[in-house]
């Protein structure tokens, strides 16, 4: 099984406190900690496990700048065989469709049976996998939390739906799946693993290499654009209990008693 | 005038709540636009839903096809492509079905796509201005979509006011005949229903619910001790289930259980909308989180900025001493 996994370098939501810049229209990006999108680690782990079981290879690809190479190397340290960086000034400002169009061009350069993405990333749209599938005319399933390889032509996938239930589908290959967290336990990546792949060549491809019209992607090709970031006024919110821990607990217990919590 | 369509998801012959929320969303996009409901499926359940929607929408398009007995996104997409004008604004829910259908639909319609919209600020020429959240709800953004060649938009369920006006007196238009080939490369097999664990969190009056702030599997015990002291039950947010520290049946959220306790203790839970979507019935919410900017403080009744690993044992002792 030849598997391509699309990954992304994102600001780490667990490690950062997000603040606006002084102009109040963008994030203050000076000290942001970046990492691999959480969902993508599950996708790469799943790809590695499939290849361990049925053979083949795992390639990780990302659209980004020079710094995005580090997330490719991290996923290669996990066990992905190859990495490809799709990078060009013309790609900047792409919307979901632009990113999907860039990835489509790379998919068509190879011969992949299975293409995986994370279910969503920092923007929370969960759009690239479904768009890529539609552009390729491949079948698609989102929020996948189970994959069973049946044969060379089809797989069974479980999708997470409401209430903890799972929707099982049979899908023909090649296909695109977006992977939900919890499908597996992504393996730990140590410093040794990172060192091992530090000198491996990661090819960089631009619009020309991929045969992409620069006007069709990037800011100019985007039908949906982000205007600014902001933090809204959200009304009163919670009554914040303050004081020493002892005082807080005393106040809390009174409230819990009144509300039937004790 | 903008042509707007709202996709009506339904289960067991009843439309989901979002069906009542689209009219408010549509009004914020363009107050002059009429919204047409679209219901796809088959048989008596579909008829029932389509009829019910005539009380809310002036026009309801019905697509009846045996292959749509289960809403397979690939087949629903084909049906919508056959029936709807490609320059329309189409509203869908941002849920597990909408996320499956909408991105590909936008590609096939060659229209703009905007996901998980929580509010609209209206049309400015061809640009529709919208509000969404990014980075797990940590920040909001304004986005604009050029809707001149149509748009597919998923709205976050629960973000818009449900309509109370149920006297539209609309009519059902049967467009089943417009649907052509619905063969698909993805075939629905079955729904595997979640196993019920040994503890039913949906029945508990008081929940001590833990999130990422619990840090390690062994620390679940600290929450269990507090729950025991309070006569409560331990539940959790998604990352705890992903890490396999608690079973799926303990997870609160849209992808887990829906709970209706009297008191909800959110311990080290940031408060994503997927999590809060599982907390119903307006419980008294106590949030303890060491990050003073955690979104949970916007919805909680009482907020405490502390490390739960230090706070919970002290609270346990105080409760035991009562």
From TrEMBL, chain A:
Among CDD domains, the record links this protein to:
ETF_beta
Q: Where is the signal peptide?
A: none
Which residues are in the Electron transfer flavoprotein alpha/beta-subunit N-terminal domain? 24-214
Task: Give the source's domain of life in one word.
Answer: Bacteria
The terms under GO molecular function for this entry are: electron transfer activity
Q: Does the keyword Electron transport apply?
A: yes
Q: What keywords were assigned to this record?
A: Electron transport, Transport
* InterPro entries, sorted: ETF_a/b_N, ETF_b, ETF_beta_N, Rossmann-like_a/b/a_fold
Task: Note the PANTHER family from the entry.
Answer: ELECTRON TRANSFER FLAVOPROTEIN BETA-SUBUNIT
This protein's name: Electron transfer flavoprotein beta-subunit
Origin organism is: Desulfotignum balticum
From TrEMBL, chain B:
- Electron transfer flavoprotein alpha/beta-subunit N-terminal domain location is 4-191
Key words of the record: Electron transport, FAD, Flavoprotein, Transport
Cofactor(s), names only, from the UniProt record: FAD
Q: Which SUPFAM superfamilies match?
A: Adenine nucleotide alpha hydrolases-like, DHS-like NAD/FAD-binding domain
Its GO biological process annotations read: fatty acid beta-oxidation using acyl-CoA dehydrogenase
Identify the residues that bind FAD. 212, 237-238, 251-255, 268-275, 289, 307-308
Q: Which InterPro entries match?
A: DHS-like_NAD/FAD-binding_dom, ETF_a/b_N, ETF_a/FixB, ETF_asu_C, Rossmann-like_a/b/a_fold
What PANTHER family would the database entry show? ELECTRON TRANSFER FLAVOPROTEIN ALPHA (PTHR43153), ELECTRON TRANSFER FLAVOPROTEIN SUBUNIT ALPHA, MITOCHONDRIAL (PTHR43153:SF1)
Q: One GO molecular-function annotation for this sequence?
A: electron transfer activity
Question: Gene name on record?
Answer: ORF21
Q: What is this protein called?
A: Putative electron transfer flavoprotein alpha subunit
């Amino acid at each position: 099984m030849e598997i391509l996994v699309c990954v992304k370098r994102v600001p780490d939501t667990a490690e950062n406190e997000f603040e606006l810049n002084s102009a109040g229209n963008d994030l203050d990006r000076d000290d942001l900690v970046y990492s691999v999108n959480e969902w993508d680690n599950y996708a790469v782990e799943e790809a590695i496990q499939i290849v361990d079981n049925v053979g083949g290879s795992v390639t990780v690809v990302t659209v980004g700048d020079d710094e995005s190479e580090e997330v490719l190397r991290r996923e290669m340290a996990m066990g992905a065989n190859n990495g490809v960086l799709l990078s060009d000034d013309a790609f900047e400002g792409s919307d979901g469709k632009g990113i999907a169009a860039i990835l489509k061009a790379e998919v068509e350069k190879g011969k992949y049976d299975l293409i995986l993405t994370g279910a969503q990333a920092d923007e929370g749209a969960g759009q690239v996998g479904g768009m890529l599938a539609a552009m390729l005319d491949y079948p698609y399933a989102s929020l996948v939390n189970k994959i069973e390889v049946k044969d060379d032509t089809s797989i069974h996938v479980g999708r997470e739906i409401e209430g903890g239930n799972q929707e099982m589908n049979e899908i023909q290959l090649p296909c695109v799946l977006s992977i939900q967290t919890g499908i597996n336990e992504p393996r730990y990546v140590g410093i040794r693993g990172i060192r091992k792949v530090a000198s491996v060549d990661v090819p960089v491809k631009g619009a020309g290499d991929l045969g992409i019209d620069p006007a069709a992607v990037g800011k100019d090709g985007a039908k949906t654009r982000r205007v600014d970031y902001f933090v809204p006024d959200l009304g009163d919110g919670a009554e914040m209990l303050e004081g020493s821990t002892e005082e807080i607990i005393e106040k809390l217990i009174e409230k819990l008693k009144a509300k039937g919590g004790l | 005038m903008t042509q707007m369509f709202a996709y009506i998801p339904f289960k067991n012959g009843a439309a989901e709540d979002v069906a009542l929320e689209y009219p408010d969303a549509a009004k914020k996009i363009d107050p002059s636009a009429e919204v047409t409901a679209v219901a796809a499926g088959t048989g008596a359940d579909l008829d029932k839903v389509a009829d019910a929607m005539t009380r809310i929408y002036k026009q309801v398009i019905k697509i009846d096809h045996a292959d749509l007995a289960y809403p397979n996104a690939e087949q629903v997409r084909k049906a919508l492509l056959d029936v709807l004008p490609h320059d329309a604004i189409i509203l869908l829910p941002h849920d597990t079905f909408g996320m499956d259908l909408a991105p590909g639909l936008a590609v096939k319609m060659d229209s703009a796509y905007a996901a998980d919209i929580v509010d609209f600020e209206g049309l400015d020429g061809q640009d529709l201005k919208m509000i969404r959240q990014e980075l797990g709800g940590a920040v909001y953004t304004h986005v604009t979509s050029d809707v001149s060649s149509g748009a597919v938009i998923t709205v976050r369920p629960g973000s818009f006011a449900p309509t109370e006006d149920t006297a539209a007196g609309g009519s059902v238009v049967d467009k089943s005949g417009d649907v052509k080939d619905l063969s698909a490369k993805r075939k629905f097999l079955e729904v595997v229903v979640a196993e019920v664990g040994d503890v039913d969190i949906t029945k508990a009056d008081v929940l001590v619910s833990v999130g990422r702030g619990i840090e390690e599997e062994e620390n679940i015990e600290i929450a269990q001790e507090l729950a025991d002291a309070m006569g409560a039950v331990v539940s959790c947010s998604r990352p705890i289930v992903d890490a396999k520290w608690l079973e799926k049946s303990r997870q609160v959220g849209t992808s887990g259980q829906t709970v209706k306790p009297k008191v909800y203790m959110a311990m080290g839970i940031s408060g994503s909308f997927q999590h809060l979507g599982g907390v119903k019935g307006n419980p008294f919410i106590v949030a303890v989180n060491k990050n003073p900017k955690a979104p949970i403080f916007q919805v909680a009744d009482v907020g405490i900025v502390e490390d739960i690993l230090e706070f919970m044992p002290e609270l346990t002792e105080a409760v035991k001493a009562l």
